Amino acid sequence: MSEPVQFPIKTVAIVGGTHGNEFSGIYLEKRYRAAPELIQRSSFSCRTLFANPMAHQANKRYLDSDLNRQFKTADLANPALRNYEQSRAKVINAELGPKGAAKTDFVIDLHNTTSNMGPCLILTQPGAIYNLLAGYIRLKMPTAVISRDEDHVAVADHALLCTVGTYGVIVEVGPQPQSVIRQDVLEQMDEMTRHILDFIELYNTQSLPQLPDRVEAFRYLYSIKLPVAATGERVGMVHKAVQDRDYQPIQPGQPIFTLFTGEELAFAGPDVVYPTFINEAAYYDNNLAMSLNEKVWIDVYTG
Amino acid sequence: MSEPVQFPIKTVAIVGGTHGNEFSGIYLEKRYRAAPELIQRSSFSCRTLFANPMAHQANKRYLDSDLNRQFKTADLANPALRNYEQSRAKVINAELGPKGAAKTDFVIDLHNTTSNMGPCLILTQPGAIYNLLAGYIRLKMPTAVISRDEDHVAVADHALLCTVGTYGVIVEVGPQPQSVIRQDVLEQMDEMTRHILDFIELYNTQSLPQLPDRVEAFRYLYSIKLPVAATGERVGMVHKAVQDRDYQPIQPGQPIFTLFTGEELAFAGPDVVYPTFINEAAYYDNNLAMSLNEKVWIDVYTG
Asked: Mutation test of the interface with chain B: which of A179, A191, A287, choosing the one with the most B Cβ atoms within 10 A?
């Protein structure tokens, strides 16, 4: 499938509260809604959207199913999928999409993690505009991390909300416990979001500054599970030497889990990997312990 | 009301999962249940209790109301209080109590906080045994914090689960997000719990080592709320210079909140205070921002 080309970017949407207990995006969307001058630029219009208000009211990630897993093109078209989040996805698709022919050129979806990931820009599709954006964020927030999350998967098969626009990215900031708002995390999310808006303005007006030629990024490989007994019961936890060390290398043979009995389990993979979403609270429902990544380079000035 | 005197301590109960999303106590209780030799000592019997299994199954603090607020003597006797946690309180009172004439001499209730409080021993009643325990914990875990939480309130009027025993304390360890288990936090909880058991053994056998004469502690004064508009909506958050600085002094006039508009609000109290439970996730339902304390000294060898 060919890369979408939309130039200039005329319509942008900032989405908060896709997960009801990730408070930074919820309060930031509310703030931008109250003070729209913060997100207006000369070359495009920008709106906001509060994606999952009922989950927020219940102080939960979601009511029926994860809203950020409902945006495959086929699922959006499937009338049998009709629980709360599946319904919200269809409504959001009508408001911002429809996916594949969207009225929104660029979607910025705001998320928090309980993991120690700092501010992180997550790209879910390849393309020249994303490469330039990665370079711009590296320039403006040198410590921010660029992540490529299954950007080889065709957009139609991507289930993430941000894929409802022609372009879309996730701003992911942590660590922040669920249902808490931290000023430092809110400020990092605000800063990255405004840099993205500035980038789009500069992209539209063809006035981007000189960017680094290439940018280090982390590319998602696969997830690993917490130690679980045959009964389904969790019998261990993330090793304390791995906890909070998102993006730090894990070596083959390094202990990564500690069983409640005290025994340690080593990483069985053959290669050095880089973990993200270490011990993320929201992933316990599937017993996911962390995501593993490889280090890659993004060439900023080539497609 | 006179202080209870129970010597020696013959029966101890370790309670986990009073709050269903505080995972350290839940996994530690399960571990002790599977390996009871870890908690046995020669001079007393020790059992464990999983206090709120249904809240844990729902991955929530509680289903109907906070179980750790249901243990006032009058409430335990009130048949009109019959939601899930009120019913659990009555069952636990029958199992470990009855409060005021308990079959359990010493209750250790295990809790987590999302706040940066480290390992903390919380005392809810005054008395010679608690003073000795404070001295012993200071000796064995020098960096652990001793907290006195409304220990002037008569035990009958205390709503905390640990007051169901003749004696009782809370082991509170953070920071840990809700619904997450961190190895470092689990180990701190395990260590403090085993020190308490060792203390009881030494107390019973009158073989305590020389303890410090006095121990610094934090005594709860009152809680303050997040900035809230007349509509009830939160309009601000804990100031980033206060976040994570539990036990560090707050000066009169120091900024403690930041409004979402950027404005800062100063602490209006007349005296230096010491915050705990800063930005605790579980207290958002009441918009509590933090607890404020004074520094006090506990004389270890006087009542």
From this structure: A179
Alpha-carbon distance of B64 to B266, in angstroms, equals 35
Distance from CA of A145 to the nearest CA of B (A): 22
Cα–Cα distance measured from residue A139 to residue B60, given in angstroms and rounded to the nearest whole number: 42
With a CB cutoff of 8 Å and minimum separation 6, the contacts of B183 are A237, A238, A239, A240, A243, A258
CA dist B186 to B25, B29, B207, Å?
Answer: 8, 11, 28
Which of B127, B124, B104 has the alpha carbon at shortest distance from B3? B127
Measure Cα distances from B49 to B28, B92, B105, B199 in Å: 11, 9, 15, 21
Tell me which amino acid residue B244 is. D
Helix, strand, or coil here: B267? coil
With CA atoms as reference, report the closest residue to B258 among B270, B244, B271, B241.
B241
Q: Which residues of chain A neighbour B30 with C-beta distances below 8 Å?
A: 260
- Interior/surface letters A170-197, b for 16+ CB within 10 angstroms, e for the rest: bbbbbbbbbbbbbbebbbbbbbbbebbb
Whether B15 and B48 have beta carbons less than 8 Å apart is answered as yes
How do residues A270-291 score in pLDDT, each as one tens digit? 999 999 999 999 999 999 999 9
Tens digits of per-residue pLDDT, B16-50?
999 999 999 999 999 999 999 999 999 999 999 99
ipTM of the complex: 0.93
CA distances from B84 to A82, B55, B69, B107 (A): 31, 9, 13, 22
Distances B260 to B210, B226, B265 between C-alpha atoms, Å = 52, 12, 11
Please give the Cα distance from B187 to B24 (Å, whole number): 9
Q: B240 and A187 in contact by Cβ < 8 A?
A: yes
Q: What are phi and psi of A286, to 5 degrees?
A: -105, 10
Report DSSP state, residue B242.
T
Q: Which of A182, A240, A284 sits opposite B243 (nearest CB)?
A: A182
* β pairing state of B236-238 and B255-259: antiparallel
Q: What phi, psi does B270 have (nearest 5°)?
A: -85, -15
| Each residue's pLDDT tens digit, A19-39 | 999 999 999 999 999 999 999
Closest Cβ opposite residue B183 in set A177, A238, A285:
A238
Query: pTM value?
Result: 0.95
Task: Give CA–CA dist B28/B31, Å, rounded.
Answer: 5
Q: Please check whether residue B256 is in contact with residue B239, taking contact to mean a CB–CB distance below 8 angstroms.
A: yes
Amino acid at A189: M
